[in-house]
Design goal:
With 165 residues, the chain is an alpha+beta fold. It has two domains: 34 residues; 97 residues, Tetrahydropterin Synthase, Chain A (2-Layer Sandwich). 39% of the residues lie in helices and 19% in strands. It is built from five helices and four strands. Strands 1, 2, 3 and 4 form a four-stranded antiparallel sheet that branches. A hairpin with a 5-residue loop joins strand 2 and strand 3. The longest helix has 21 residues. The radius of gyration is 29 Å and the shape is elongated. The N and C termini lie far apart (75 Å).
Length: 165
Protein backbone atom coordinates (compact mmCIF):
# COMPACT_ATOMS: atom_id res chain seq x y z
CA UNK A 1 0.00 0.00 0.00
CA UNK A 2 1.15 3.54 -0.62
CA UNK A 3 1.86 6.26 1.91
CA UNK A 4 -1.03 8.45 0.78
CA UNK A 5 -4.60 7.34 1.17
CA UNK A 6 -6.22 7.39 -2.27
CA UNK A 7 -9.32 5.51 -1.20
CA UNK A 8 -11.51 8.38 -2.39
CA UNK A 9 -10.45 8.39 -6.00
CA UNK A 10 -12.37 10.68 -8.33
CA UNK A 11 -13.74 9.51 -11.66
CA UNK A 12 -11.64 10.24 -14.71
CA UNK A 13 -11.87 13.84 -16.01
CA UNK A 14 -12.89 15.39 -12.68
CA UNK A 15 -10.17 17.68 -11.35
CA UNK A 16 -9.02 17.34 -7.81
CA UNK A 17 -9.79 20.14 -5.36
CA UNK A 18 -6.63 22.00 -4.61
CA UNK A 19 -6.02 23.44 -1.23
CA UNK A 20 -6.12 27.25 -1.16
CA UNK A 21 -2.92 28.88 -0.07
CA UNK A 22 -4.20 31.79 2.02
CA UNK A 23 -0.73 33.25 2.48
CA UNK A 24 -0.36 33.58 -1.31
CA UNK A 25 -3.67 35.48 -1.42
CA UNK A 26 -3.13 37.61 1.66
CA UNK A 27 0.46 38.71 1.07
CA UNK A 28 -0.14 40.67 -2.21
CA UNK A 29 -3.20 42.35 -0.70
CA UNK A 30 -1.22 43.51 2.33
CA UNK A 31 1.65 44.73 0.18
CA UNK A 32 -0.71 46.65 -2.12
CA UNK A 33 -2.48 48.25 0.84
CA UNK A 34 0.83 49.25 2.41
CA UNK A 35 2.08 50.72 -0.85
CA UNK A 36 -1.13 52.73 -1.30
CA UNK A 37 -0.95 54.06 2.26
CA UNK A 38 2.73 54.95 1.90
CA UNK A 39 2.13 56.64 -1.44
CA UNK A 40 -0.68 58.70 0.00
CA UNK A 41 1.38 59.76 3.00
CA UNK A 42 4.40 60.73 0.91
CA UNK A 43 2.56 62.40 -1.97
CA UNK A 44 3.41 66.04 -2.79
CA UNK A 45 -0.20 67.13 -2.21
CA UNK A 46 -0.17 65.72 1.32
CA UNK A 47 3.23 67.23 2.05
CA UNK A 48 2.09 70.62 0.72
CA UNK A 49 -1.01 70.44 2.91
CA UNK A 50 1.09 69.79 6.01
CA UNK A 51 3.60 72.50 5.11
CA UNK A 52 0.96 75.16 4.55
CA UNK A 53 -0.88 74.22 7.73
CA UNK A 54 2.31 74.33 9.80
CA UNK A 55 3.56 77.62 8.36
CA UNK A 56 0.44 79.66 9.05
CA UNK A 57 -0.31 80.19 12.69
CA UNK A 58 -4.01 80.90 12.19
CA UNK A 59 -5.47 79.54 8.95
CA UNK A 60 -8.37 81.50 7.51
CA UNK A 61 -11.62 79.87 8.59
CA UNK A 62 -14.34 79.54 5.98
CA UNK A 63 -17.73 80.60 7.25
CA UNK A 64 -20.14 77.72 7.72
CA UNK A 65 -22.43 77.15 4.75
CA UNK A 66 -25.84 78.66 4.96
CA UNK A 67 -28.91 77.37 3.20
CA UNK A 68 -27.99 75.83 -0.15
CA UNK A 69 -30.25 75.75 -3.16
CA UNK A 70 -29.46 73.29 -5.97
CA UNK A 71 -30.76 74.54 -9.29
CA UNK A 72 -32.06 72.26 -12.04
CA UNK A 73 -29.44 71.45 -14.71
CA UNK A 74 -28.91 73.90 -17.55
CA UNK A 75 -28.71 72.48 -21.07
CA UNK A 76 -27.36 74.83 -23.74
CA UNK A 77 -25.52 74.67 -27.05
CA UNK A 78 -22.13 76.36 -27.19
CA UNK A 79 -20.19 77.25 -30.32
CA UNK A 80 -16.50 76.80 -30.95
CA UNK A 81 -14.34 79.10 -33.08
CA UNK A 82 -15.46 77.22 -36.23
CA UNK A 83 -19.14 77.87 -35.36
CA UNK A 84 -19.74 74.17 -34.67
CA UNK A 85 -22.25 73.63 -31.86
CA UNK A 86 -21.55 71.47 -28.82
CA UNK A 87 -24.05 70.49 -26.11
CA UNK A 88 -23.25 71.55 -22.57
CA UNK A 89 -24.87 70.59 -19.28
CA UNK A 90 -24.19 72.71 -16.21
CA UNK A 91 -25.54 72.10 -12.73
CA UNK A 92 -24.94 74.63 -9.98
CA UNK A 93 -25.83 75.07 -6.34
CA UNK A 94 -26.03 78.43 -4.61
CA UNK A 95 -25.08 79.01 -0.97
CA UNK A 96 -26.80 81.79 0.91
CA UNK A 97 -25.45 83.64 3.93
CA UNK A 98 -26.31 81.86 7.17
CA UNK A 99 -28.13 84.83 8.69
CA UNK A 100 -31.34 84.97 10.64
CA UNK A 101 -33.15 86.71 7.77
CA UNK A 102 -36.20 84.76 6.78
CA UNK A 103 -37.64 87.50 4.54
CA UNK A 104 -35.38 86.41 1.69
CA UNK A 105 -36.40 82.82 0.89
CA UNK A 106 -33.86 81.23 -1.47
CA UNK A 107 -36.51 79.50 -3.60
CA UNK A 108 -38.12 82.86 -4.41
CA UNK A 109 -35.03 83.81 -6.41
CA UNK A 110 -34.85 80.65 -8.52
CA UNK A 111 -36.36 82.21 -11.68
CA UNK A 112 -33.99 85.20 -11.48
CA UNK A 113 -30.96 82.97 -11.00
CA UNK A 114 -31.99 80.67 -13.87
CA UNK A 115 -32.48 83.67 -16.16
CA UNK A 116 -29.10 85.18 -15.24
CA UNK A 117 -27.37 81.82 -15.72
CA UNK A 118 -28.96 81.13 -19.09
CA UNK A 119 -28.14 84.60 -20.41
CA UNK A 120 -24.52 84.08 -19.34
CA UNK A 121 -24.22 80.56 -20.76
CA UNK A 122 -25.60 81.60 -24.15
CA UNK A 123 -22.57 83.81 -24.76
CA UNK A 124 -20.02 81.41 -23.23
CA UNK A 125 -17.72 79.94 -25.87
CA UNK A 126 -16.91 76.25 -26.18
CA UNK A 127 -13.23 76.87 -25.49
CA UNK A 128 -14.00 78.81 -22.29
CA UNK A 129 -16.30 76.04 -21.09
CA UNK A 130 -13.55 73.45 -21.62
CA UNK A 131 -10.84 75.48 -19.87
CA UNK A 132 -10.48 74.28 -16.26
CA UNK A 133 -8.63 77.44 -15.28
CA UNK A 134 -11.71 79.55 -16.04
CA UNK A 135 -14.00 77.79 -13.55
CA UNK A 136 -13.36 80.48 -10.91
CA UNK A 137 -14.21 83.19 -13.44
CA UNK A 138 -17.46 81.34 -14.23
CA UNK A 139 -18.36 81.24 -10.52
CA UNK A 140 -17.46 84.91 -10.02
CA UNK A 141 -19.38 86.06 -13.08
CA UNK A 142 -22.48 84.13 -12.06
CA UNK A 143 -22.25 85.49 -8.50
CA UNK A 144 -22.08 89.06 -9.84
CA UNK A 145 -25.02 88.44 -12.18
CA UNK A 146 -27.11 86.97 -9.34
CA UNK A 147 -26.39 89.94 -7.12
CA UNK A 148 -27.24 92.32 -9.97
CA UNK A 149 -30.55 90.47 -10.34
CA UNK A 150 -31.41 91.32 -6.72
CA UNK A 151 -30.19 88.22 -4.85
CA UNK A 152 -28.14 90.05 -2.22
CA UNK A 153 -27.65 87.34 0.41
CA UNK A 154 -25.49 85.03 -1.72
CA UNK A 155 -22.32 83.60 -0.28
CA UNK A 156 -20.98 81.49 -3.17
CA UNK A 157 -21.81 79.63 -6.37
CA UNK A 158 -20.82 75.97 -6.57
CA UNK A 159 -20.43 74.12 -9.87
CA UNK A 160 -21.68 70.64 -9.12
CA UNK A 161 -21.65 69.25 -12.66
CA UNK A 162 -20.22 70.46 -15.97
CA UNK A 163 -20.28 68.30 -19.10
CA UNK A 164 -19.27 69.64 -22.51
CA UNK A 165 -19.12 67.46 -25.60
Amino acid sequence: MSDTDDSHELPAGVPRKSSINFVALLLPALLAGGAAFGGARLSPAHAAGNASGASSAAPAQQPPPGPTLALEPFLVLTQDVNKKTHPMKLTIAVEFVAAGKEDEAPKNFTPRMRDATLSYLRVLSYEDALDNTKADKLRTDLLERFRAAGVASLQRVLITDLVVQ
